[in-house]
Amino acid sequence: MRVAVGGFALESVSFLPLETDLADFEREARRGRGLTEGLAGTATVAGGFLDVLAAAGAEAVPLVYTDCSAAGHAGDAAFDHFRDELIGRVTKAGPLDGLLLFLHGAMTTPQRPDPEGDLLQALRDAVGVDLPVMVAFDLHANLSPRTAGLCDALFGFHFSPHVDMAETGARAARWLLARLNGAADPQLALVKPPVVLPSIFTATALAPLKDIVAASLTLPERVPGILDASVFCGFAYADTPDLGFSVAVVADGDRALAQREAERLAGRVWAAREALLHEELVDDLDGGLAKAKQIARDAARPVVLLEHADRMNDSTWALKRLIAESASSEGGGLSVYCPYLWDPETAAAAVAAGAGARLTVALGGKSSDRTGGPIAAEAEVLWAGDKVFTGTGPMRKGRRIDLGPSALLRFGGVTVSVVSVCTSAIDLDALEQFGIDFAAQDIVLLRSKTHFRAVYEPLAAAIVIVDTPDWGTADLKRLPYRHAPAGIFPLARDATWPRAADTSEIMKQSSGQGDD
């Protein structure tokens, strides 16, 4: 069997003024053997695709695969380029038995609220309706019914942190092969309860989301005929008419069964909407800084201070305060490390100055007017140069990480790694690749949302979450939505869902199936 493999992924923060352009996508792009050999065995969706195909003796036909993680809109020219490349490569690939594709599900462009739907429509126009197409999506996808209608089946990450990216790719590949071998007839249903969460509340270890995800995981074991189920939390910072949760269920030859079970899971999401909104976990900046410093003074392990609203890894709200306090008695002699601050200009200046130099910088705060603005301060350059390494964490294992020109800067008791490629610190590579010992710090300032938890939660004395005015705020009413659907919770705290009565009845009828 010949199965095409490709991917075009971006989690778009629609409100950011910076676009993700063609060069950004090209930096991450893999083609040919760079795709089939470079991503096999990695903790990526492509790694899952490729490993299952190889084990089955199927030929993986590489298209193009690029994943820019989270950033601003995709530029329309960049979208057009990769859409056309995917279509061109799949039409020139010769006879194919199937197609496996990774899309994030929360990409937007200035002109397209549903670019992934546009891409799938273009692919369907090129390959026809008979070629089986199965797609893996991020848990934070804002899925449209149109997108679901263009896939034979779709599969989502079960967890955030996304430690199951490769396994999600493997699920999609296994069910594609089952379809091709005649062992199963996957039929898809998608239901969208009108709920969206700030990313900080989509950690799947938090109840009641944990319980809803657990119910989706066990659904194939509990209900004969169900092959797979995915709960998508949506991405609150992509301004789209399809904003919010989705539940996708795949049944064997029985779409009505898939629909009933998707309705049932969606009803659980709707019923739990208030409890899903963990506003008690978030402090304001003043309160959070005071709490983190107090815990750090008495703790035997570092405190993780999380500035989760920072979407471009250059926010300075907390860092500015910590650097200023470090130069005074207010800092209390605490050791603070801030990894992966995105600032290509400062990184370049530090590389030009070299290790041991002292220079005055305007640090961070340049991506938008909500970042807190640059920090004017004098820094000592501890190290500077290009930073390239192979990832070791659970989400980046085996991947080549290129941060570009980078530097390690010291501002009194605060040390900052400054990088030229925007990425979040979600594993210990963010410290160890710069020679920083996590255990020796009092406070580690991170800008992740949930992914950091896989590594840092067991190591930290405490996690203190602060909200700031940046574009990833926990208060979604601060954001200037233009396309979000009316009546979605919590933008509308009194939201109603007409289908809730129907899903409630389905839940009652199905209560004997033991989902709890």
What would your notes on this structure say?
The chain folds into two domains: 275 residues, Response regulator (Rossmann fold, 3-Layer(aba) Sandwich); 182 residues, no CATH class. Helices cover 31% and strands 24% of the residues. The C terminus is likely disordered. It has 16 helices and 18 strands. Strand 4, helix 5 and strand 5 form a beta-alpha-beta unit.
SSE arrangement:
Elements: E1 2-13, H1 22-28, E2 30-31, H2 32-36, H3 45-55, E3 59-72, H4 76-91, E4 98-103, H5 115-127, E5 133-137, H6 145-149, E6 153-156, H7 165-180, E7 186-191, H8 209-222, E8 226-232, E9 246-252, H9 255-271, H10 273-276, E10 282-283, H11 285-298, E11 303-307, H12 317-326, E12 336-342, H13 344-353, E13 358-363, E14 375-390, E15 400-411, E16 414-419, H14 429-432, E17 443-446, H15 453-456, E18 462-466, H16 500-509
Parallel strand pairs: 1-3, 1-4, 4-5, 5-6, 10-18, 11-17, 11-18, 12-16, 12-17
Antiparallel strand pairs: 2-3, 7-9, 8-9, 13-14, 14-15, 15-16
Helix pairs in contact: 3-7, 4-5, 8-9, 9-16
TL;DR of this structure?
The chain has about 525 residues and is of the alpha/beta class.
Structure keywords:
2 domains; 31% helix; Rossmann fold; alpha/beta; 18 strands; 516 residues; globular; 16 helices; disordered C terminus
Q: Roughly how much helix do the residues carry, as a percent range?
A: 25-40%
Distance between the termini: 40 Å
Give the biggest sheet. Answer: 9 strands, mixed
Mean pLDDT: 95
Read across the widest sheet, the strand sequence of neighbours is 10-18-11-17-12-16-15-14-13
Q: Find the CATH superfamily of the largest domain.
A: Response regulator
- How much is the radius of gyration in Å? 23 Å
Proper CATH architecture of the largest domain: 3-Layer(aba) Sandwich
CATH class of the largest domain: Alpha Beta
| CATH topology value of the largest domain | Rossmann fold
Can you count the beta strands?
A: 18
Strand content: 15-25%
| Number of distinct helices | 16
The structural class is: alpha/beta
Number of domains: 2
Q: Tell me, briefly, the overall form.
A: globular
The poorly predicted ranges are: 511-516
